[in-house]
Structures are given as structure tokens and as C-alpha cells.
Design brief:
With 429 residues, the protein is mainly alpha-helical. The protein has 17 helices and 6 strands. The chain has helices at residues 74-80, 83-92, 98-110, 116-123, 131-141, 155-181, 194-203, 214-226, 234-243, 249-260, 268-279, 285-293, 314-329, 336-350, 352-356, 363-373, 381-401, and strands at residues 5-8, 16-21, 29-30, 58-61, 66-69, 72-73. The strands form 2 sheets. A 3-stranded antiparallel β-sheet has the order 1-2-3, with no helix packed on it. A hairpin with a 7-residue loop joins strand 2 and strand 3 (29-30). Helix 5 (131-141) runs antiparallel to helix 6, helix 8 (214-226) crosses helix 17 and helix 11 crosses helix 16 (363-373). It is globular. The mean pLDDT is 94. Bound molecules: acetyl coenzyme *A.
Length: 429
């Protein structure tokens, strides 16, 4: 809170004073919560000027290209931390000491297996079910398996649910992939790290262990770190809204997965690959760049631009490094699709249209390429985003539950019919 106030005057009536709130960083926020009782609602479709909550977790400055988790720059976390440590940071508010780190890793490993009935549950889906459809269903169904941790007022229950979600989501994601491919499910191997274990469950088979390349495991770990949280985006806001009714965490995360599925959110990395395949050859780049610039053509360069970042997305800088490393380690630098992607990146970075509009490659451009290089089918791209984002969702949900909150209930500007009398069917035109 500051001593500053905003004043709203409507049609010359006596002014309404509105307090101005100040965060640690970022824009000041005008507190309009008293307006409802004074007879007014505010109108902000898409919430582009509305802070729906207070949060201590993540800070973004889109103009400067800054992303902080609990105060730590994303670049430092991506370089020096690992995914599970970042999970602890997001959940607990500080980095773990050595003992806390080991204990947390052990706890997560303890929870990696899923109830056997979940296997039957996944097997019940059509062989070609989209993995995101399976994820929405199975994660929601987790609340029917873990009754012992559903009391949201009990701190221990909330903690166990958070650990179960972080530990089991990769197992469920890999099972969805296996179901899609008609291969047997792979059990987790707790001697491996979080990202190694995910690769093992995705690509191993009971007949042949998957040989994990350290650089590949590192790239996957980074990818999870870079997707871990991103403030009050659509899926996180969905999780908070669902949670504000008192729903259990598994159903709230299932709601978040549903929101993530859309192409305007988590689906963009898939769109990058579709676009690269459509361009098809380096010789066609100029034609597609011209299409992207043409106002009469709906085509946009997928993986370029961002609603919040009007500077380089700091996650994209790190992801670009990982992308180059992965292509080198896997010997794919000369693969035509990846050469096409690199050439497109170079041309767009130098083109006046993209430079003047600050349309830099975003995190999805590089994550799409990395995932493709790892042999992950495009249907799984958004699932992998969901695996990384689970900790952000559950941290934000937990933050809401442990602070004063009310059920989320937006109002509306009604534009429908005015009151009218019911007409019996035989009298209707
Ligand atoms: N290709 C070509 N032109 C573009 C692109 C693009 N990818 N993105 C924006 N522009 C142009 C717009 O036509 C507009 O031009 P104008 O000023 O001459 O009219 C200008 O750049 C500003 O664009 P806006 O639409 O105002 O930018 P906005 O912030 O609304 O959109 C968005 C951001 C949706 C991400 C957009 O850049 C886009 O569609 N990108 C491609 C899809 C994509 O990669 N999405 C992933 C985002 S990252 C994430 O969600 C994790």
C-alpha cells in the first residue's frame, strides 16, 4: 500500500477514492475492489489491465526481458540449478540447503510410481487418443486414487499432493506416449535423475534400455526449468479460479492442463513444427517471410513474437543455446528441417519488419526444434510443457489457499434482451 490514491469521478458525482498498491517491482496497481459496492463494475476482457491476485512467486518485466522466480533470474536458474531444485524454490520460497535438496529429491522419487489401476485407465483410451486428452482425464482422475490427501485445509495433505503431482506427471505423460505408440508402459527407475527418468520412460522398452546422453538429459531438464512457471498466464489463472471454489488440487491441475492445450498457449511449439514442414525447403523461406509481412495474408511466423515480451524472451536465449547443443550432440546440424529452422531464424533476426516490431524468436520456436530433434512426436509437445509447468500451477494454487481468498467470480456487462414476458408456443411467430 502507498499513500497515493486514484480518484474516479462519474458524471460529476462525488469522487471515489481508490487506494494505489505497490509491489516489490513492476507497475503500481489501483485497488478497485470497493467499486462493486459503489454500483460500478470495471470492464477488462482478456484481463490485460487487471491484477487478479497478489503473488510472491514469479516476476516478469516484458519490456526489459526479465523473468525472476522468487527473485532469481531465469538465466541463473537454467545455468546453475536443476529442475527439482527449481521446484523446491517455487514451492517453498527459497533454494534448499544440501540436506533439504537431498530429502526433496528422495521424496519425489518415492512418489514416481502410479497406482496400477491408472494403467488400466490409460489403456481404456482409443489407441490414437491425443495425449493431451488423456492427460486432462487421467490427472483429474488422480483425485479418485489419492483420497488420503484431499483436505485442502490440511498443510500436510497439500504438500503430499504437490509432491505426488510433480513426481507422477512425468510417469503419466510417458504412459500416454506409450499408449499412443502401442508399446508397453515403462516403470520409473529411481536411480535416475528426474529428466533422465522421463527419457527412460519415454524411449526405453522392456527389451532395451534407452541410452541416455547427458547433454540430452540436461536439455530436457532445462526445458522443464524454463517452463516451470510464468506468472498469471491463462492456465495458471484457470488453476487459481478452479481452486478458489475449494476444488481439490488434482482437479485444479486438470483444469490447467485443459487451458494449456489451446494453440494460443501451450500449443504454439507444435505450430512451429507444422509451419517448418509447410515451408518445406530453404528456397521457400523468402516467400513465407513475404506472406508473414503481408497484412492481407493471415499467415504469421510461428514461434516469433510474444504478448508480454517486447524484448528478447530470456527463456528463448537459454533455449537457443540448448537447441544448438542438442543438434550438435545428435549430429543433426545438417538435417534439412533444422537447417531450414536456423536459416529462418537468421533471416527474421535481420529483417527490418521483424526487428522494428521486436518480433524475436520465442521459447516455443526453440523448444519445438529441440523436442523434434529428440524424436518426440508433435502430439507430445504440449504434454511436455505441462510436465514442466505442473510445479508452477501447484505453487500458485498453494499460495492462494494459504492466503485469504474468495471464490473467483467475475461480473459482466450484460448486452442481451431486456425483460420480456413468456409467450406460449402456439402464440409464437
Ligand atoms: N509474424 C508476423 N508478424 C507478426 C507476428 C508474427 N509471428 N507477430 C506479430 N506480428 C506483427 C503484427 O502483425 C503487428 O504488425 P503491425 O504493427 O504492422 O500491425 C505487430 O507485429 C504487433 O503484433 P501484435 O499482434 O500486436 O502482437 P501481440 O502481442 O498481440 O501478439 C503473439 C503476440 C500472439 C505471440 C504474436 O506475436 C503471434 O501470433 N506469434 C506467433 C505465434 C506464437 O509463436 N505464439 C507463441 C507465443 S509464446 C508462448 O505462448 C509461450
Amino acid at each position: 500500500m502507498t499513500n497515493r490514491k486514484a480518484t474516479l469521478t462519474v458524471d460529476g458525482e462525488s469522487p471515489i477514492e481508490l487506494p494505489i498498491l505497490k509491489g516489490t517491482r513492476g507497475q503500481d496497481v489501483i485497488d478497485i475492489s470497493s467499486l462493486g459496492s459503489q454500483g460500478y463494475f470495471t470492464y477488462d476482457p482478456g484481463f490485460s489491465a487487471t491484477a487478479a491476485c497478489q503473488s510472491d512467486i514469479t516476476y516478469i518485466d516484458g519490456a526489459k526481458g526479465v523473468l525472476l522466480h522468487r527473485g532469481y533470474p531465469i538465466e541463473q536458474l537454467a545455468e546453475k540449478s536443476d529442475y527439482l531444485e527449481t521446484c523446491y524454490l517455487l514451492l517453498e520460497g527459497q533454494l534448499p540447503n544440501a540436506q533439504q535438496k537431498t530429502e526433496f529429491e528422495t521424496t519425489i522419487k518415492y512418489h514416481t510410481m502410479v497406482n496400477r489401476s491408472i494403467e488400466q485407465f490409460i489403456s481404456g483410451f482409443r489407441h490414437d487418443a491425443h495425449p493431451m486428452a488423456m492427460m486432462c482425464g487421467v490427472v483429474g482422475a488422480m483425485s479418485s486414487f489419492y483420497h488420503d490427501s484431499l483436505d485442502i485445509t490440511n498443510q500436510q495433505h497439500r504438500t503430499i499432493s504437490a509432491h505426488r503431482l510433480i513426481a507422477k506427471i512425468p510417469t503419466i505423460a510417458a504412459m500416454c506416449h506409450k499408449h499412443f505408440n502401442g508399446q508397453p508402459y515403462m516403470y520409473p527407475d529411481n536411480s535416475l535423475s528426474y529428466s533422465e527418468n522421463f527419457l527412460h520412460m519415454m524411449f526405453g522398452t522392456p527389451c532395451e534400455r534407452y541410452k541416455i546422453k547427458p547433454a540430452v538429459a540436461k536439455a530436457v531438464d532445462r526445458l522443464f526449468i524454463l517452463h516451470a512457471d510464468h506468472e498469471q498466464n491463462a492456465s495458471t489463472s484457470t488453476v487459481r479460479l478452479a481452486g478458489s471454489s475449494g476444488a481439490n488440487p488434482f482437479s485444479c491441475i486438470a483444469a490447467g492442463i485443459a487451458a494449456l492445450w489451446g494453440p494460443a498457449h501451450g500449443g504454439a511449439n507444435e505450430a512451429v513444427l507444422v509451419m517448418l514442414n509447410e515451408i518445406g525447403h530453404e528456397d521457400n523461406i523468402a516467400e513465407y517471410i513475404a506472406k508473414a509481412k503481408d497484412k492481407n495474408d493471415p499467415f504469421r511466423l510461428m514461434g516469433f513474437g510474444h504478448r508480454v515480451y517486447k524484448n528478447y524472451d530470456p527463456r528463448a536465449t537459454v533455449m537457443r543455446e540448448s537447441c544448438n547443443e542438442v543438434l550438435e550432440v545428435l549430429g543433426l546440424e545438417n538435417d534439412p528441417l533444422f537447417r531450414l529452422a536456423k536459416k529462418l531464424e537468421k533471416i527474421a533476426l535481420e529483417d527490418e519488419y521483424f526487428v522494428s516490431r521486436k518480433l524475436y524468436p520465442n521459447v516455443d520456436f526453440y523448444s519445438g526444434i529441440i523436442l523434434k530433434a529428440l524424436g518426440i512426436p508433435v502430439e507430445m509437445f504440449t504434454v511436455i510443457f505441462a510436465v514442466g509447468r505442473t510445479v508452477g500451477w501447484i505453487s500458485q494454487w498453494n499460495e492462494m489457499i494459504t492466503n485469504p481468498y474468495r471464490i473467483g467470480r467475475p461480473r459482466q456487462l450484460y448486452t442481451g434482451a431486456d425483460t420480456r414476458d413468456y409467450v406460449p408456443v402456439d402464440k409464437r411467430q
